[in-house]
Amino acid sequence: MLDALIVTLWIEHNGQMYIKEADGITSNCEATSKDLFHRFEKLPMKLVAVKCDTAKSYKNRKEYFNDKR
Fold it and tell me: Which portions of the chain are predicted below pLDDT 70?
């Protein structure tokens, strides 16, 4: 069974760090990450990190960091 993964990006631009959830979901984190890093090579922003979460781990992380424990 393939898991649907939610992709979160950490982007650096003008000395500021931004966190953004990608618009779509994926089932292949490694290929998606490689594609994103390749696409960001041409942009003035720097892609610092990519994280893929299952729906459950994404929800748990959001609750943890939003202090809804």
Answer: 1-2, 67-69
Exposed (0-12), middle (13-18) or buried (19+): which is 64, by Cβ within 10 Å? exposed
pTM for the model stands at 0.78
CA distances from 39 to 1, 42, 48, 58, 66 (A): 29, 6, 13, 24, 31
| Overall number of domains in the chain | 1
- Domain range for residue 17? 5-65
Q: What are the CA-CA distances from residue 41 to residues 10, 19, 49 (Å)?
A: 14, 18, 13
